[in-house]
Structures
1.
Amino acid sequence: MHQPIRDNLEEYLKGSTRQVPQEFHEHLEMCEDCATELRLYQGQAEMLRLLQPGGDLDPRAGFYARVMDRIEQEGRSSIWSALLQPNFGRRLAMASAVLVVLMGTYFVTTERSEPEVASTDVVFTGAPSPVADQNSLHQQRQRDAVLVNLAAYHE
């Protein structure tokens, strides 16, 4: 769109043809691109005029007073009032029950039983039994083998 059309477009679309200079009309007669674009703008302006409300948009008398009364009546709600709502209360109860079941299942499946005694021949009489001596000797040999392996390790 050329400059003479841009400068006077708003006045032309409002319908005030007296304020539009003669140069505007002359340019429209010579330039088909500007005339086509102006027709599109006129169609859009007409559609926007149809969307304008016809009457007064002010609220009815007493609207603000009713709103303020309602705000005062409702007051501030506490966090505990959310628990009293039926949907939220049911969901919270179901989530709690699922959590209890899952935690119970976890604790039952991971509970360790007491270690069993390897030999029932061990008697605590103050003197070491031969079985206990053999176990401690075996454990000592395993420790020594691990130390030798660590000391002899090469990359």
2.
Amino acid sequence: MLKLFRDGKIWTIPNLMSFFRLLLVPFIIWAYVGRQDTALTILLLAVSALTDVLDGQIARHFNMVSDLGKALDPVADKLTQVCVVLCLAFSFPMLWILLGLCVLRESTMAILGYITIRKTNKVPGARWFGKVSTVVLYTAALALLVFPKMPEWLTTSLIILCIAAVVMALVLYIRYFTGLWKQAGTAKPAGQE
């Protein structure tokens, strides 16, 4: 794990934004479960989503991309997603299936990410399919928060869409990581051309 700190970019603005998103998670749970305040929950999720979009843009624009940020950003995303799905699962029981898949995906991703760091000596960044999955989950969660009494067929359709996005991202990430491993295995050491 010390490899995450090798570039010396720890206290950057994007990393602080990711830390902030991690700190928002208990407040999102408190707003939804403790206060039962949907408006506050939506506001906190919007702040989290906005900082998620901005941290990547700031990191790339101001050359603040770091290995820690590549690891921390998805952790903040996934922890937020899991907490939101968990909160909503008490109102929409079909979300327990999605929650189980999210936990499976994140556990698999953590293991594959660790193996990738060990095999390649690099921290892999987020891919487009992970971002699509995140957008689908946030959009569905927002719809369920704003319209909790929508028709059952629409709720079911949204949840199935989320399940498909999570499974798609998991399959494509497995392919991505195993591809990185193959590249690392076939790469010639420096000086052996």
